[in-house]
Amino acid sequence: MIDRRSFFGLGALAAFAAGCNTVTSRSCRAAGRKVQFKFGMAGFSCHLMTVDETLAFMKKLDMHYLCIKDFHLPMKSTQAEIDAFKRKCADFDVTGYGVGPIYMGSDDECKRAFDYAKAIGVKTVVAVPFEKKEKKRMHSRARCEFLSGLCAKYDLRVAIHNHGPDIPDCYPTGESSFNMVKDLDPRMGLCLDIGHDYRAKANPADSVRRFHTRLFDMHVKNILLKPKYHAVPMPRGEMDLWEVVNALVDVGYAGCCSLEYESFPRKGSKPGIKEMDVAECVGYFKGLMKAAEG
Amino acid sequence: MIDRRSFFGLGALAAFAAGCNTVTSRSCRAAGRKVQFKFGMAGFSCHLMTVDETLAFMKKLDMHYLCIKDFHLPMKSTQAEIDAFKRKCADFDVTGYGVGPIYMGSDDECKRAFDYAKAIGVKTVVAVPFEKKEKKRMHSRARCEFLSGLCAKYDLRVAIHNHGPDIPDCYPTGESSFNMVKDLDPRMGLCLDIGHDYRAKANPADSVRRFHTRLFDMHVKNILLKPKYHAVPMPRGEMDLWEVVNALVDVGYAGCCSLEYESFPRKGSKPGIKEMDVAECVGYFKGLMKAAEG
After folding, report:
1. B29 to chain A nearest CA, in Å?
2. What angle separates helix A51-60 from helix A79-91, to the nearest 10 degrees?
3. Nearest Cα residue in chain A from B285
4. Which of A92, A291, B234, B259 has the fewest CB atoms within 10 Å around its CB?
């Protein structure tokens, strides 16, 4: 959201009255705004599907960008297997634009992830660099510094995926990721998971505006916090996704917003129930993207 | 959200009025806009489902308004059957807000439809009043005049459903419906089917603006005209639904926009394929409605 106090200075007001095209508010947005970001699918939305099912599902939904998870393309894949995977993606007009989230608990695991990304040919590694303390995953400055060096060496970007308040010392918010990377290689940045950001009491639209200089990827979703945190189809969640989309447009975000729909259908539930939820999310977010261009 | 009325000083308000609120463009819309219309389901979207399946489907999609088709509640239903149907709707938090489209080829069929609507307790009868000429259905001024009398007698509204150019003399466009009813009882109006309006080369957003004084119901959808006219999930159609939603908000439309998704899944296609399409449409339209409030 814009800061209306600074916005409604006299000069701004004059510009506003004159034609509304220099400033952006909820009531009056600049003419000719462009959505520069792409809408994609986080692999997890399709965690119950095979690769073929995932790609057919994405084709049906007219979705063309996939953040690849290891259950669809194992980390230990050979180059031939990777190439076969990529050909299959191309057949469905899908581009794997990134990999992850990948948990990296050692420098070796960092290197392995970078080799995997390089072999696939993606530019972005969604990462959770951690070290274990008393059996708990903790965020790790040392691991981030190591990754920062790898970014330079491989010319790849790291997008740290924030989780939520249940793991408070492992990137609970976008802010915590940002603070960890802001003085490292400029290729060290964020995959802002807005659901986890929100449940850690942050405002995801504000996070977009504050941290956009390091924003490389987004996990979009909607959630309810009661009775306990859970995924819901986008129109029925607590977050104002319209605010998030407008923040992304305002800062000129040009990466990907990937839908991560983290539901686990109950055993015995109707086939296709998760697909239907994902379809509803896809429709909703595309509606917001359409409207954002005015 | 801030209260913009109290927020703007008089000078600002004047400037705002000068620049923004007499016209609504894609780039600049008046503050504090409200979506007054409801989003519902046209019975045809669920033509392959039983009543129970339809209501469960609507509940899942958080949809609460149904335009009742005869395949869900036959015209010859007894009052006890109608009451049972209504109780079932109430169990799923669904309101049957109208009936139809009902084809009315005789004055008796008009009366039967009005009795059916009255017995259910809805206010709106979506209608295609016609007479047969050389085995073709033609729109009929005489039938409309008869219906106009019934509107007064029953205090019900008729919303004439336009079809498309393939039946050129049977209400191809919203304009043709409007011209037929504009001098009749004010309860004679339109159910504007935007897909049919569009394929008859009208602009549905313009139709909303021109005929809103008689606009009682809407069938919303999206379509492609090539290789031949067919329904597609809303984000992938030719029509600019964002323009339509904005036209509806601008004219203060307070009726229902009912999704009519007219696909017929191929035999042997995956179960749930139509449900997924409908879910995507529901999400998209809700996204536009959310955005329209700014």
Report:
1. 6
2. 30
3. A287
4. A92
Q: Which domain holds residue B283?
A: 4-20+35-292
Using an 8 Å CB-CB cutoff, list chain A residues near B276: 60, 272, 275-276, 279
**Could you report the average pLDDT of every consecutive run of 10 residues in chain A (294 residues)?**
38 38 42 89 94 96 98 97 98 98 97 98 97 90 97 98 88 96 98 97 98 98 95 97 97 98 77 89 98 92
A292 contact residues in B (CB cutoff 8 A): 291
- CA distances (Å), B291 to each of A29, A66, A188, B32, B182, in order? 12, 26, 33, 12, 33
The residues with which B218 forms a beta bridge, in sequence order, are B192, B257
Pick B235's closest partner by Cβ from A13, A16, A286: A286
* B26 occurs within a structural domain: no
The reply to whether residue B235 touches residue A29, judged by beta carbons under 8 angstroms, is no
A113: CATH: 3.20.20.150
Subunit contact A283:B288, Cβ cutoff 8 A: no
Report yes or no on B25 lying in a domain: no
Work out how many domains chain A is built from and give that number: 1
What the block records as the tokens of B29 is 């819309």
The mean pLDDT of B138-166, rounded to a whole number, is: 95
A47: Cβ–Cβ under 8 A, 6 or more apart, which residues?
A69, A71
Distance CA(A128)–CA(A123), nearest Å, equals: 16
Three-state SS at A192: strand
pTM here is: 0.89
- Say which of A233, A272, A292 has its CB closest to residue B271: A272
Residue from the list A31, A62, A235 with its beta carbon closest to the beta carbon of B62: A235
Q: Is residue A74 part of a domain?
A: yes
- A279 at B interface, C-beta within 8 A: yes
> In terms of Cα–Cα distance, which of A128, A221, A217 is closest to A172?
A128
Enter the tokens of residue A113.
């992830």
Domain annotation covers residue B67: yes
